[in-house]
């Protein structure tokens, strides 16, 4: 069901993106991008520190004595992010891949699963202060108080949903699901699956019990979101319309929130662009310029995310080949 919704979302998003570009004039948008030339390749470079900060954030969400090497955390996060960005997986497939990659590299499956679940929760929690920052700046700039009220209401609902999700995790989410499915599954191996689910729940509680590390992780993740502002700030400068860092922070924050809310649309195609057009108008940006900013920031998908997706395929193919050689009988 989620996969079908993602494919529908992908179609709708790409259709919306195409309509926005045609509506504003593809020639004008391309001219803006071409005038900046190769300088736009600087955008993935200034964005990259936010990826490093995300690695640091995730590092704090493993049991203290069983933290994987930073290299493995970085690679799995990089590839997981690429999957969530470029494939129609509703921002969930990449999280599953992160855990799987750690397991392939010899890490404990229970630790990996628990850590990925809490990391996804931290990603959601970080959106709350991120939304508050953007909304506060929107009010500070005296642009659109009605929009600010709407976003704050959405942020409140998001916060309540996150609190409920955390409480469910602490109450034993995996064990509950395993017991529920077990009522309809009589296979001999289900008992082991239920046991592993309880183990995951135990590690999740262990991670949450270390409140200091959990809060530090949230702080790092929020910092990473803030650092992404440099990408928008530099894009505007390179495209010939410099804006203030406060305007860039507001623009990046609220477009990110709008895109994350519409998670069923892969990579926010059309949603991100619509957000830039709507919010850009509030700070005096023309629609075609706002679209150019959005498309310029998507250069990172080619420079950072596409190689991550290809490397993930390499890792999986290497594992399958190794597995096939073990299974194949010697002649």
Structural commentary:
The protein has 331 residues and is mostly helical. The protein has one domain. 80% of the residues lie in helices and 0% in strands. The chain has 15 helices and no strands. Mean pLDDT is 82; it is low at 180-193.
Strand content: under 5%
Ends apart, CA distance between termini: 45 Å
Coarse structural class: mainly alpha
Integer count of domains: 1
Q: How many separate helices?
A: 15
Characterize the biggest β-sheet.
Answer: none
- Provide the helix percentage: over 70%
> Judging from the principal axes of the Cα atoms, what is the shape?
globular
The helix/strand series, from N terminus to C terminus, equals HHHHHHHHHHHHHHH
Low-confidence spans: 180-193
Overall pLDDT score: 82
Rg from alpha-carbon coordinates: 21 Å
Per DSSP E runs of 2 or more residues, the count of β-strands stands at: 0
Write a short abstract of this structure.
With 331 residues, this protein is an all-alpha fold.
């Amino acid at each position: 069901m989620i996969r079908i919704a993602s494919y529908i979302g992908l179609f709708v998003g790409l259709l919306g993106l195409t309509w926005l570009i045609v509506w504003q004039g593809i020639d004008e948008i391309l001219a803006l991008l071409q005038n900046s030339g190769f300088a736009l390749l600087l955008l993935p470079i200034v964005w990259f520190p936010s990826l490093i900060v995300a690695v640091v954030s995730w590092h704090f969400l493993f049991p203290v004595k069983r933290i994987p090497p930073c290299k493995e955390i970085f690679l799995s996060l990089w590839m997981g992010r690429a999957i969530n960005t470029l494939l129609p997986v509703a921002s969930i497939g990449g999280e599953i891949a992160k855990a799987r990659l750690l397991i392939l590299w010899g890490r404990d499956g229970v630790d990996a699963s628990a850590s990925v679940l809490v990391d996804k929760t931290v990603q959601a929690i970080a959106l709350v202060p991120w939304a508050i920052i953007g909304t506060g700046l929107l009010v500070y700039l005296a642009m659109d108080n009605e929009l600010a009220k709407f976003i704050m209401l959405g942020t409140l609902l998001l916060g309540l949903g996150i609190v409920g999700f955390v409480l469910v995790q602490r109450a034993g989410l995996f064990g509950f699901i395993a017991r529920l499915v077990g009522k309809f599954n009589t296979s001999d191996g289900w008992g082991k699956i239920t046991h592993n689910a309880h183990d995951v729940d135990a590690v999740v509680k262990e991670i949450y019990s270390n409140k200091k590390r959990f809060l530090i992780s949230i702080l790092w993740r929020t910092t990473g979101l803030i650092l992404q502002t440099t990408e928008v700030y530099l894009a505007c400068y390179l495209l010939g319309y410099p804006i203030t860092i406060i305007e860039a922070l507001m623009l990046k924050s609220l477009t990110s929130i709008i895109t994350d809310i519409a998670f069923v649309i892969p990579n926010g195609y059309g949603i991100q662009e619509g957000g830039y057009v709507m919010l850009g108008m509030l700070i005096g940006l023309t629609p075609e310029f706002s679209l150019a900013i959005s498309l310029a920031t998507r250069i990172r998908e080619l420079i950072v995310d596409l190689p991550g997706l290809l490397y993930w395929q390499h890792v999986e193919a290497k594992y399958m080949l190794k597995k096939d050689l073990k299974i194949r009988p010697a002649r």
